[in-house]
Amino acid sequence: IFPPEVLAVSTNVQLFERAQQSIPGGVNSPVRAFRAVGGTPRFIARAEGPYMWDAEGQRYIDYIGSWGPMILGHGHPAVLEAVLAAAREGFSFGAPTEREVELAEAIIAQVPSIEQVRLVSSGTEAGMTAIRLARGATGRSKIIKFEGCYHGHADALLVKAGSGLATFGHPTSAGVPPEVVQHTLVLEYNNLEQIEAAFQAQGHEIACVMIEPIAGNMNFVRASVPFVKRIRELCDQYGALFVFDEVMTGFRVALGSAQSVYARALPGFAPDISVFGKVIGGGMPLAAFGSSRKIMQNLAPLGGVYQAGTLSGNPVATACGLATLREITKPGFFEGLSAKTQTLRQGLDEAAKAAGVAWSSDHEGGMFGFFFTDSLPQNYATVMATDKERFNRFFHAMLDRGVYLAPALYEAGFVSAAHSEADIAATVAAARESFASL
Ligand code: PMP
Asked: Catalytic annotation on 278?
């Protein structure tokens, strides 16, 4: 049924050329195109455990993990069995299933701040609806986000900072009318004065503050504890809702997600609305947002905030997510994952130091970041001021040695439970050579 040239073994270059004929830029999500680092994207043929193989049969140790979801590695046997069994029962019904309830209960069980969740199919959808819910619940229009945080590609969230403080933002994408982002205020991450001033100026009009608590879309930057604490206080004082976008950090930095990390430093801390994706779907299209029962009652069919989805709570995706959560809730899972990530980080730190390379790194649970600069950046501007050329050369040096890091300096990295000590040692050895080649 396929023309012979389709069955022939193609190189990455050939596939990329062919892809660009039928798909804009040859990719279905922009960062996959290697625009930031240059070169040809690898077309992945298959993956297993911590490895991926490209169309040419080259093996890579994978530190992207599908941009976060593959916390158990690829093709974990228990997850695979659950997915196959679910697929045999049916792909999609457009009617409720017990498995959706089980997944909702499994998420709620680990995150004390949420009493109810709604399942959707992508992080974008979850973030977009979380904003709608916050606006619907408060009856207010304005939202605050932070420069360098990505919350999916809903119109109102594709915004960069305006020229002055407390001015509303400008669209970062063509096709987003300025009127659509006129209620979105963009502030600097970790900047206490700006958030203070914004609330003072228009606190009673703000529906919510949305944040990536550990930002993974500007590499790896933590919101400082005083920053999170102050936002919580301001939200309470002015009746705004605090939204944690845990699409990346959820069930990845800790079983209780990033909010549990902040609750360790700030006893009793909780956001009002949480957004999840990636790990809760285990690699299938699945995301969620959750909150108190009171706030969630605003959603249709109970309340006036509309949200729906043909494939929401998909039976195969929920089977994949549930099986994944079952594995990661086993005792000691996160201790092991965190120790692995720590070993990788320490190895990279030592290799950079030995090579005399300016370097800093951070990690939490199974998520990490590194920068070619001596001290950890605290916001988007300082991330962007790090040495991009050096990062790009390092990325390609590692790729040539069979280590697949995120192809842009503003992305985080991910370790899975499938990465062995030998994989990590091989990665550090590749880094030693790569640093020397810089
Ligand atoms: N929020 C965050 C923090 C993300 O990292 C992402 C995706 N990288 C999204 C939202 C959007 O999720 P999706 O790509 O599933 O739409």
From this structure: yes
